Amino acid sequence: MAFDGIVTKSVVKELNKNIIGCKVNKIYEPTSNDIILDLYGNGNRYNLHICTNKNFSRINLTKYSKPNPVNAPNFCMLLRKHLNSSKIIDISSFDLERIIEITFETYNEVNDKIIKKLIIEIMGQFSNVILVNENGTIHDSLKHVVTKTREVLPIRPYEFPSNTKKSFLKLNSFDEFIEIFDNSSDKKLDKFFSNNFIGISMPFIQNICNYFNIDINNPNQEQLKKIFLHIKDIIKNIDNLNINCFEGLKNDYYINISDNNSGISVNNFIDEYYYKIEQKDLFINYRDALLKNILSILTKYNKRLENIEKKIKECENMEQYKLYGELLTTNLYKIKDIPKEITVTNYYNNQEVTIPLDTTISPSKNVERYYKKYNKCKNALSVIQIQKKETLEDLEYIDGLIEYIKNCNDFEKLKKIGEEFYGDSDNSNEMKNNKKTNKSSPKKYIINGFTVYVGKNNKQNDLLTKSANKEDMWFHTQKIHGSHVILKTEGKKVDFDTILKCAKLAAQNSKAKNSSNVPVDYTFVKYVRKPSGSKPGLAIYTNYKTIFVN
């Protein structure tokens, strides 16, 4: 939904009806693009959200809160200084420009009544919030602007952005409109309106044409008149608050006439609409950043495993080094001048063995050299095997995190996975500082009268299994990463159909969810344990049975 001049005018009309006379209670700046005014008036609390994000720029009343920084930014402190406890006495927009002016009445240090104005420019990447005094002099702005045509800086006079487009509101007749259309090189209606008139967006015209079933590329004069009159009618109904948001083309929405307006419906719709879009955008950005960090760790683990395998390969000749040492020790008396190699009989199998020698050192030193190689490989191998086991566990853990992320479609659940990952990595500062995290619960099912829980992430798997009773049943896909499934037995005997359905749940919540004939192990919780110091989600179990499910 394009936040164009039509939407701006609608929002301003609703704000005038609802928040004129409200006092500013608190002011927040959750991000560098967001200002929230906490207002109180007529026995009601309102939050006025001003967003200057280039993709979501808007102004509307909101019911959603955002976490605030510990220390308020400078512009927020300035707004608090000038606007706290002030009263909103007017909200206006200009023509169909996406510029809103909010006028506040407040008092100075000597208790004289003064006027302050907050100017909100909704202009995509150039969106801004500017505080001016009653003479139009800028106190400061959220974003400082210095261009060839305009300066937005403290102590400068505020000037409106230049606009060469025509005002649709000033058209007195259809004849004036058709004259502009005839003289325009843009005959496609959406481009014509967007390029010629202030505040009328292409999506708005596309949806109006669709509403009347008009060919946007080839309208006749009668159709042009219908659109002209309808837009005039929409603007008239905005003044009467008889408008609302309707679904249009490509799951988009637009303003149109309605008989059932509550006086705040456009604000409410915009709040819901943009909140969902922002959450989706936040989810995608967070997921991509999380995956990028996880994949970099995965690359590191794979490289480590590659080096470990290389070292293991180097230790393959360990027993041969020991044999060479033993045979050389037995045959030292035969070595006179040190040759490059010596052939001796292997007394273990009576076969000839040729042993390479280092001609720069003595025969006894050659014996010592082979024993050193043997002991070095032997000691290294014992360490390397442990490293390999740990690295394989790390790889399995990372693989499981990636699988959880693939299956996650909720931002709060994704944050839990992020907290789990960042808690074990060097990039954890942001997550550790954010102590206000929402609690997440495992999935809950009722199967044949039994309560069944399914973990949503590794930490939840650990907690779920740890808190289960010893006689509860535990399900997990065999050697395939997946969620822990707990069946609460409550002392009752569990029939095979319930076991089968629980096993299917385990398969559905695993990496093998799209496979057939998936092996699922199940046992009682008392036979499941977590190795000390192991990664989240890892469990060892015994006394289990296996069932194959689709």
Q: How is this structure best described in words?
A:
There is one protein chain. The protein is an alpha+beta fold and about 550 residues long. It has four domains: about 5-165, ibrinogen binding protein from staphylococcus aureus fold (Roll); about 170-255, no CATH class; about 305-405; about 440-550, no CATH class. Helix content is about 40%, strand content about 20%. It is built from 13 helices and 23 strands. The strands form seven sheets. The chain has a six-stranded antiparallel sheet, sandwiched between helices. A five-stranded antiparallel sheet has the order 5-6-7-8-9. The protein has a four-stranded antiparallel sheet with strand order 1-2-3-4. The two termini are about 45 Å apart. The relative contact order is 0.06.
Short description:
This protein is of the alpha+beta class and 550 residues long. It is built from 13 helices and 23 strands. It folds into 4 domains: 5-163, ibrinogen binding protein from staphylococcus aureus domain (ibrinogen binding protein from staphylococcus aureus fold, Roll), CATH 2.30.310; 168-257, no CATH class; 305-407; 441-549, no CATH class.
